[in-house]
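Quick board copy: two proteins, each given as sequence then tokens.
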Amino acid sequence: MNKLILAGASALAFVVALPALAQTAATSGAAAPAVAADNILLKEWTGPYGGVPPWDKVSPELFKPAYLAAIDLQRAEVKAIAENPAAPTFANVIEAMQRGGRALQRIDVLFGVMTSNMNSPAYQAVDKEMSPILAAADDEITFNEKLFARIAAVYEARERSGLTPEQQRLTKRTYDSFVRQGAKLDAAQKTELAKVNQELASAFSDFGQKVLSDEDKWTVIDNQADLKGLPASLVASYKAAADERKLSGKWAVVNTRSSVDPFLTFADNRALRETVWKSFKSRGDNANATDTNAVIAKIVKLRADRAKLLGFETHAHWRMDDTMAKDPAKATELMMRVWQPAVARVREEVADMQAVADAENKRGEGTNLKIEPWDYLYYAEKVRKAKYALDTNEMKPYFELNNMIAASYYMAEQLYGLTFHEITGQVPGFHPDVRVYEVKDKASGRHVGVFYRDDFARQYKRSGAWAAGYRGQRKFDGPITAITSNNNNFVKGAPGEPVLISLDDTETLFHEFGHALHGLLNTGTYPGLAFTPRDFVEFPSQVHENWVLTRQVLDRYAKHYKTGEPMPQALVDKVRNASKFNQGYATVEYLSSAIVDMKLHMLKGGVVDADKFERETLVEIGAPAEIAMRHRLPQFNHLFTSDAYSAGYYSYLWSDVMASDAWAAFEETGNPWDPATAKRFKDIILAQGNVIDRAEAYRAFRGRDPDVDALLENRGFPTGNPAKK
């Protein structure tokens, strides 16, 4: 993360889980080749909209010389600030830092996007080589005693030097960040910390590349009979995946969630479900060259050593020092409050599923089976049909990808007055699948920003879905408008066929779009205050999932891909009636990962056997055997490709408390599109970045602290309020 511009801030409002390299760069001692001056990656972005990334000119061999040259440029900027003979002021220290490192920041963006979406072996090699260099460079800024002395002087005088509240906050956050990263350590401690940080950077890169290698696999299906139970659209997508991999006459289930989960839900072939499930859940855990368990052990130990050096009890305490929760105990308390009712609900769900399986056996339609993890989604679907007369296959024909994209833009227009105008082909993209939009203010026609989207899975693309900010909005030295993006891993259909996605996928699409909106609508002055705590950053994205099932969206966009008819109200009613169905599974799958993460990073010594720790912790907390962690440790990119979500996966639950309560604010008006509530949400939650404390911001929006009961009620769990039980 660029320490000059961003002042060590912990989480950009619209950047989610970029690779480690894209989050650590600053300066380095490596010399830059003279030829780097002509490197396109070093140059200001040109073209329309205040300049756009030069994707058509990006290639892996350009990055090392560009990074080395940018490091030298930034070193000169740091020296000028640190050795300025004038008395330290906000203008010549803090504002000067906000101007610094912009070439390096642009390179970080380009490299982060390429290593997320197009991470070929050539990019992996650059990542491996440059990660420790960049970590050392980051420390060079933190450990610059002259620079820190000037920061400290501005900090000490902040309340008596005529600074605005925003300037005072930026000064304090800059100072606190430097202290948290080791600026006050003695020389020996700094040397030791630098070594730890460089080793961590290398380990992060190693972990990500091993997992990526295990994701570049697929289960081949040779016989059409083995496709029984799968809807035609899904069969077509597996056929397209096989064709793409030159597997003529076959079908391929690729190792990404958007491909795996539908197969587990509908495939009648139990043996194949087990094969697909095990392939997906064993990523990084196969006792071979791509096994990550030793890397995890190294990372956890290094993190514990670093926390001790920095004066914190554990890595979890260090990571949470700059969050809303502050204390691991507080986050754990919330998780366990939700965990117990979720586990109880899972027992009910498993009993319902087992009854269906037993009935099948009695009718001679099945084998005498006990529900296993690869059976959960399959039998849950059968229970859903029996209890709610709802077949999720009924829904997919109404969720055509392009229509759902248009629906998300409609949401942005209705709530915030933003319009999206496609400009694909007018500016470069990094892959032919990328689509680009200019974002405007509807009322004035004013340009707001640019939005990129990359929706489809491919080789060398990391799994999952995420948002990334290419350029943050700022008034300081501006105006500068935002460039944001969304990235998904939907499976393409056969040529000419529509891409039909599930309700869950549609909610994910709206979720990631919420991150993009957070970036587009930021109106802060300083880049260093565009960042929010990790346990706040998911809140604005999670709340936007709720608009998917509003009647306005369904009537306009949830239209059957063949008939063009909108989703009938009877089907919507079934969906709503079943909205709390399987919440035990969804909650336990997520929370088991979050609890294991927190317990792992509360180990004081940091010595761990990852496989053993995962197994024993799940037993300790009473995790149901029928459900696996959403992200097992050997493939948990959130935790081990950077520090970003380490001891922080709980943040989705913390944010969901706010998201559930904020959605209740809209519902209480009787209109989910209520203009006054939308304006308050935009002005207070989305536009301010981190200009004021986020807990204060939430109270300003809602009039009080968030209510945990709103989350429990949404999931159908018992609440603390007898009236809501």
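And the next:
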Amino acid sequence: MKRILIVALALLPLTTWAQGEWDQKFEQLGTMLPTPTDYRNASGAPGVKYWQQKVDYNIDVELIDETHQIIGKETITYTNNSPDQLGYLWVQLDQNMRGKDSDTPLVESSEMKSSMSGKSLQNLTKEFDYEGGFNIEYVKDAKDKALPYMINKTMMRVDLPEPLASGESVSFKIAWSYFVQDRMNMGGRSGYEYFPKDDNYLYAIAQWFPRLAVYDDLEGWQNKQFLGRGEFALEFGDYEVNLTVPADFMLAATGELQNPKEVLTATQLKRFEKAKQTFDKPVFIVTEEEAIANESSRSTAKKTWTFQADDIRDFAFAASRKFIWDVQAVKIGDKTPLAMSYYPKEGNPLWEDESTKAVVNTLKTYSKHTIEYPYSKAISVHTASIGMEYPMICFNYGRPDENGEFSDRLKWGMIGVIIHEVGHNFFPMIINSDERQWTWMDEGLNTFVQSLTEKEYYPEKPLRRGEAKLIVDYMKGDKMFIRPIMTNSEQILQFGNNAYGKPAAALSVLRETIMGPELFDYAFKTYSERWAFKRPSPGDFFRTMEDASAVDLDWFWKGWFYTTDHVDVSLDKVTWYKMGVPEETVENKPKKGKKGKKVSEENSESGEKVFEFADEADVFEFQNTSDRSYREFMNRVDDDAVKLANENKNFYELTFSNKGGLVTPIIIEWTYEDGSVETEYIPAEIWRMNENVVKKVFVKEKKVTNIVIDPKEETADVNTEDNIFPRVEKTSEFDQFKAAN
């Protein structure tokens, strides 16, 4: 037994050192990132052989208002730009998440409560009078010959008659239909909203047609099932869409309207032409009075709206008799996109005052920080309790009460969601990350630029996310309920904090504290320009940010994105030194001052520790440099000059401990005896030799009276109480027991 105990004790220091003081926080990411290839190079840029597939759609679809049904047919042309031969194609059938055999309700946890509302009970039982999912009528080749296919939940495999070789294209046809769900009852990213007072519907339609899944160099086929949370991985292509709706409906959609004279009145066309040259305020194409009058219309005729869009990854639309429509031009570089809003009267007065203005502001800020907005328009559509994005169009909440009154909270919430959803045009609609796999690459980056937009145009708006201090409560929470940012969308526990808030806060720390705006903005814009209309991976983002800035950030990505560590730096000790005057006799030797950190013994029983400056400085003695220190050098240090230069200076030795595990820069605010204040920045690399405890000496001309670490809360430090010196700390019962015994 004794021998075993000795071995265990001998191993303990090594184990403690390996896991504690050196946890490889500054080691390079290395094999954690994909190996560079000709498709994606080591700089984070697309490689010389980068490729991606192209998928073009020609779609005819009708919205049946009476039955809330979508009936469509499409011709898909798939171009294989990969070096691989493909024997089959995978098609996404996202509406099947509402089908009878869907896994979505099966994998959702649920629980009983002591009291339950009718709505919550209905959501629990799923007893809706609704038949969901796609009804696939046929899948045919270009010559109308049936193609074999197999449906697996939300994915459909289409088997090709012969393998599709690299560089070749294939066209095939699909006919389908489905019933649009009531969002008030069933929720969802799209659907219809019913207005009982005027017996009208507002349709916000997305995930409405069978769409090709992604095939790329990273995953092969991205055919993960759609369970409802992880969003979409899609290919770019050209679209021609013919949308047939009741003739008295107003329609908003992705793309450029090809037949305005057939679907708009002469008055509406005239107003629309005026809006193209109006930059200061929105022009109403359909006024509130006209929209209210149209609510009572019940036309039995139909209109077909034709839209064309190139280089997009998806298509969505909204339709209703209730829409007010306003438009304003925006100057972005050499382009003039149009900012538009569609909303029912129930959105006013808030929507006519704020929606299009928010679209304009978003396009300006995002274009500055990423790429100039390339499309012809950006649309904000109002419908209840939603925030969802698609190319050129998004659906947003924010409804006043029946008297038209609204709180500041509702106003700021609406503006925030419009900025966020319009911002999604950039992430991921243009910078086309894989949402099904990495939610943070669109939501987190988008939330960060949203915060820049709000700071620029709405400085009075309370920020919800996008600053370090706003993520503190989450990061100091129970680690059992936290996942790293680099977690698949379906496994994230706290979705908003993990995929939106923490990545946005991380980028804020990176911009404001670590890199500085100039370096960060250049690197971030480089990433955006490199990967516009392409498909970046996390490694491409990490590598580009380093490549374009010459800042080694591997430690940052490892800590913030791959762990659940948090920032908690404690200023444990401050010792004040001054140079001693050489004594002639022992009797004249100056006395040593008290230690810079002192714990008041008389207060230890009351559970308090007092951290304060000593009354007098500790003394260090100056010695002349020994000859051995010079080694082979012939030159000598002027010891007398060094002594003279430092004899009246104050030397402060600070001891910091890393309690949270996440390494971070140390920002120190010094307050001097004369009341002046100075801030110093110490890079995170100060922790590279010891990730738990570091000491550093600072030389000051003036006497220090107060020290604060992270004074502006820039690093997401979860406990600022131990960032201050002098201070008084309450001790735990356990610490009190130790002190007493």
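Board note added afterward: The first strand starts at residue 54 and ends at 64.
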